[in-house]
Amino acid sequence: MVNTSRGPVVGFTLFQNSDQRQLYYGSGNVFLGIPYAEAPTGAHRFKAPIAFKTFPNNPQNATEAPPQCIQYSPVVATSEDCLFLNIYTPINAKNRYLPVIVFIHGGDFTTGPGNIHDPRGIVTNLVSRDVVVVTIQYRLGALGFFTGGDISPNRGILDIIEALKFVQQEIVNFGGNPSRVTLFGEGSGACAVSVLSMAPIAKGLFNQAILQSGSAFRCVNGVYDARNVSQSFIQQVAPSCGLDPNSVMGSDFSEFYKCLMGQDPNSWLNFDKELLLGWQITFDNNLLSMTSATAYSSVLDALKNRTIIPTMYGTCQDEFALKIAQLFKNGLAIKEFDQSYAKSFVKAELPGYSDDLTDLTARILLSPFAPYNMTDTLGWVKAVTSAVSALFYTAPTALEAQLYAQDNRNVYLYEMSYATNVGRSFDFPRWQPVQQTCALPFIFASGSAISNAQYLGRFTTDDWKMVKFFGSIWADFARNGRPSDYWAPVSSTGPLAYLNIGQKQQMMAPYRLDDSILVNDIVKQLLSPVK
């Protein structure tokens, strides 16, 4: 039991063997489902989170995984009452002021649980290295990000801020150091980390950052998604309230609000399923301000003025292959992925722009990656993967890292090129892409990804070494603000240096220069007029 200012918390101890040759070893204390804010239900729906002064129970039971936030692809139970976090600590953590890693899951702000990773792996690869780990849940979809009328935006991000305040106030009771908190996000979680690093209201809540496969450019409304996502939501949902969407965006918003307050949020999930880019963070003059004529230039302004903290960026070699794989898992045949399909697919990734503009942009994006044989359908799969990976992941990451390094001597960059069967979602013929989430199974020694590979006889000695490598790097960065002695930081002047994580690890430069020129110098000149 741990005593906190909000009351006592009861977790459980996970005992594993001490043989480090085994997949899982070591021991730790686990606390699952600690509430960090009141239930955002009833009158609190669409409101900012409200912190608990005292836990609802005394002692607060934290021995079972909490329900996930409402989302369109639930794996287990979901609930609107979902503002919980999980804490994993060494058994002897009390009074040790250990470094803390707080993880924000990805999922385009539409899906993702806070407890997706196996406690056994977290204890083995991070807690056993004397790191306290916190994973959090935050509101997703319309509950977390819809805005209009008196409904303020970005509640999901405000949830994360409230969880970070909890960590600042209580983590010392679990053996953690509130002055050594690393905020780590993947995908949209990395985008949230980027925005929080710029937000004055989050200043001082974390001291270091890791951004994996994500950037503020990817999830701020108006940078890539020219639509107002909330207005699109109104267009789809207002008829179920007997209201004209056009009048809702005018004089009838109060009636729409009353209707939403009475509806089951699960009835809105079809909208989330159709969102190609997910929900977006909105400029609100609280979290993020519109300081320039365009969303893109406003993000640039914010990036240039953020707090200087040690920061690590990382991407996967073939980021977008994860979403491409889903098409084939859903029944699309690779032979259907021809040149015409490829162009249409890329155009669809730029919602809200004119057809002429998306047509031109798609042709420019695909041109450097087009297969030599224009009838090579797998070649077009690879071309789309490379083009969209450049647009949404590698070029924005390069730009963020380069901008930050102008004033920050502790910016580190990596790309993972290590191909593996661990976590693979689809078997492409004659191609083994390194897709988004590539590093997560190794960082957290994720049970399902690794056990599935083991079951299929695909978990190798090199995979096990990669688990050890990422655990060591993450723990060292959390402890020292440096991932390793041989990993050089990004220079403020020279080529963008990065660690290539493949069969071996080596420093290389420049990082994705062609992607940066293509997207940051050419494509964004076409799209930047969007406000």
From TrEMBL:
InterPro entries: AB_hydrolase_fold, CarbesteraseB, Carboxylesterase_B_CS, Type-B_Carboxylest/Lipase. It holds the Pfam family COesterase. Residues 2-508 form the Carboxylesterase type B domain. This is COesterase domain-containing protein. It comes from Panagrellus redivivus (Microworm).
